[in-house]
Design brief:
Blueprint lengths: L3 H8 L24 E11 L10 H18 L3 E11 L4 H17 L3 E9 L3 E11 L14 E5 L4 H11 L5 H12 L5 H6 L6 E5 L3 H12 L2 E5 L6 H7 L2 H10 L5 E6 L4 H11 L3 E8 L5 E4 L5 E4 L16
Parallel strand pairs: 2-3, 7-10
Antiparallel strand pairs: 1-4, 2-4, 5-8, 5-9, 6-8, 7-9, 10-11
Helix pairs in contact: 2-3, 4-5, 4-9, 8-9
The structure holds adenosine-5'-diphosphate and magnesium ion.
Length: 326
């Protein structure tokens, strides 16, 4: 059985050439490039709330780091360092080794150095804080969208929800698409290159962690605008192919969380630039609607011009999914 300090030395201490001082002292020392702002985001994954206790540790390690990297991507910030606070029921070397492998793999993939943390015994709980930088004044916030801007989403939101449905209720996903849905749930790929590329092009941005409509509600609230989604433009066909049920596919797309795609707005004259940036990053993007002055409201427009209001419900840990976002 390893001690706390053996665990830290063996699994969480790696070279950190980009830090002035990394793991091993009372605190890390970091220098941000001149002319940049420090960008900080923290996410906690709790067993039973965010993942099942028997989750595969390497994937859990990846996801712990990936969800925070995704927050920095959504700010158009470059992640540089992270700290990791973990609470573990026991010091099982094989399990911790796999967890650490996932954490370091994600750090390596996105240029992050682990510079500190805390390791304690207790209920399984993983908390990563990622520190990054952005040229001063150039972060993409949730508050910059204007009426007339177009609304875009990256990739394929809804896949994680289908995989979660499969896990929890045994609902079936077509075998051809099951792997990509499970990857979206267990090993989300932060859209970092896209988020960085959109700096100066997107007027507002966030990552979709709690469901497209719920997170859209946050963007609309902070920008004081409304949105009209174009039903024909929503990327529903892969979800429909995966589950075979239009209602379920639509629900996964609009309300499913945990995909970590980017939702962003941009003026129409940025359309070509956005398509070029996305192509360079190898990430599909979909223009799914436009913003209007109807602050906080979302409508869905169908091909026959019928318009239906939508509630911006997102997942809320204290209220569940059925309450409208404030
Ligand atoms: P202190 O008691 O001074 O807070 P700790 O004994 O908790 O220090 O940690 C020793 C060193 O190991 C510190 O530099 C801390 O940042 C680092 N550390 C602890 N746990 C982790 C972890 N899970 N990942 C990375 N670094 C860690
Ligand atoms: Mg400590």
């Amino acid at each position: 059985m390893s001690s706390e300090f053996d665990l830290i030395a063996r699994y969480f201490t790696r070279p950190t050439p980009g830090a002035d001082l990394g793991v091993g002292d009372d605190a890390a020392l970091l220098t941000v490039q001149p002319g940049h702002q420090l960008v900080v985001s923290c996410d906690m994954l709790v067993a039973g709330t965010h993942f099942l206790a028997d989750a595969e540790p390497e994937l859990l390690g990846w996801k712990t780091m990936a969800v925070s990297v995704s927050d920095l991507a959504a700010m158009s910030a470059r992640p540089r360092w992270a700290t990791l606070a973990i609470s573990l029921p026991q010091a099982d070397d094989a399990w911790i080794g796999s967890l650490a492998a996932g954490i370091h793999a994600c750090c390596a993939a996105f240029g992050v150095e682990l510079v500190g943390g805390d390791t304690t015994r207790g209920p399984l709980n993983l908390c990563a804080t990622v520190f990054g930088e952005v040229p001063a004044g150039q972060a993409t916030t949730r508050g910059g969208a204007r009426p007339g801007d177009e609304l875009w989403v990256s990739g394929q939101p809804g896949r994680a929800a289908l995989a979660l449905g499969e896990l929890l209720s045994g609902s079936e996903i077509s075998p051809a698409l099951a792997a990509s849905c499970r990857m979206a749930l267990h090993r989300p790929e932060p859209r970092l290159a896209l988020g960085l590329g959109l700096r100066g092009h997107a007027s507002a941005m966030l990552d979709v962690s709690d469901g497209l409509l719920g997170d859209l509600g946050h963007l609309l609230a902070q920008s004081r605008v409304g949105a009209e989604l174009d039903a024909e433009a929503l990327p529903i066909s892969p979800l429909l192919a995966a589950c075979g049920d239009r209602r379920q596919a639509m629900d996964a797309l609009l309300r499913g969380g945990d995909d970590y795609e980017l939702l962003f707005s941009a003026p129409p004259d940025e359309r070509q630039a956005i398509r070029d940036i996305a192509a360079r990053c190898g990430v599909p993007v979909h223009c799914i609607g436009r913003l209007d002055p109807n602050a906080g409201q979302v409508a869905l427009r169908f091909a026959d011009n019928r318009v239906e209001p939508l509630a911006t419900k997102g997942y809320d840990h204290f209220r569940g999914v059925d309450q409208p976002a404030p």
